[in-house]
Amino acid sequence: MSDFRNLGHSKLPIFSTISFTAVLLIIIFVCSFISNLSLQTVVLESKKISLNSFHEDQPKLRWLSTKEVLFSVTEEVDEEPETEDYTHFLTPFNGSDQERIDWFKKKLPGFDIFKSTILTREFDDRVRGFLGNEKCRVKFFMTWISPVRSFGGREFLALESLFNSHPDGCLVILSRTMDSFRGHRILRPLLDCGFRAISVTPDLSFLFEDTPAQSWFDDLTRGNKDPGEIPLAQNLSNLIRLAVLYKYGGVYLDTDFVVLKDFLGLRNSIGAQSVDQDGNWTRLNNAVLVFDKNHPLLYKFMEEFASTFNGNKWGYNGPYLVSRVVERMEQGQERNFTVLPPMAFYPVDWTRIAGLFARPVNRAHSKWVEAKLVQLSNASYGVHLWNKESSRLRIEEGSIIGRLVSKNCVICKQIYSS
């Protein structure tokens, strides 16, 4: 009997090891099964969430494909890794024309903005489906050729001011990076308030098709065009705004623009940035453009872009371009558009914009602030913030910009931390 007990005790570790191994295998199998089941459930739930969160009412679902939903779900799971910073399409410094062309041709396959995807192929359907809403009293367009993470509080305040003056307006942001779950979360507070805004991945081939820009774009994407030393994203934005207005009509705004007044009464208008002593404009700007679909001036702008493109001079394909074209047209007495004075869109020059961000420091300064606010309220449709100069400035409480933003916001959070 004692031998039997001893034998049992000697076998116990063996049985324990076998039992432990069996239990471990069962646990692994069950966990694997549950994990697979959970993953399927997450994907199914993600489909439901994406459909409900992207489009609240059924009519807007007509252009949303299942592939697009799956694409968005994948982005969310991957935390939307950003492999490209569009603001840094920077060619070799001090390189020759041929060196830049060779560099661009080599890098071209990695530039996502030129790639055809599910979202680019649905671009026109999505835009038309969105703008087809009869409630779109004014159609606005913006471009964002930068990482989604850099769309910050300052840009969001610009959107707030737009909808404060145009609660029945519709905003289309042409952006590959903002057309994502992360971008949608940025817009979500406005959407929850009932405002109509959407980010759409642009199809550049479609936008430039049947326009003077097509030949320039074809040469660029074939690697036969010198992109220049200026970041290509800047020049692409200059061209995209012309093409999207030409194809759809409406209002283009830079994202560093605080809207103060309704644009409904404006039509086929461009703003002067500066004037001479006699009140004649000396330079125009393309940060705000208001034009009908197929307007001939937009066509001429694109012709100028394609025929005179120079990627080595800042503003040459933007503000200077529109100034060149309009100056020639005025000499020929062709006028089917309006040039608005600087007070309309550019009431403060870029060299003085910093003064609008500072709070008043004495009584005289306070009086000047009050007088300036009255002037802007009466004469300006908005204020261009010249982001290149003001992006590092904090909006101080009591400043002109602080007062304007506070008056024209709709959510009104984090104004003075932007």
Automatic annotation (TrEMBL):
Signal peptide annotation: none
Record's keyword terms, sorted: Membrane, Transferase, Transmembrane, Transmembrane helix
Membrane spanning stretches: 12-35
Pfam (any one): Gly_transf_sug
Gene3D superfamilies from the UniProt entry: 3.90.550.20
GO molecular function: transferase activity
Keyword Magnesium in annotation: no
Domain annotation Alpha 1,4-glycosyltransferase: ranges: 291-414
InterPro entries per record: A1-4-GlycosylTfrase_dom, GlycoTrfase_DXD_sugar-bd_CS, Nucleotide-diphossugar_trans, Put_A1-4-GlycosylTfrase_plant
UniProt keyword Transmembrane present: yes
Superkingdom per UniProt: Eukaryota
Name recorded for this polypeptide: Alpha 1,4-glycosyltransferase domain protein
Organism: Actinidia chinensis var. chinensis
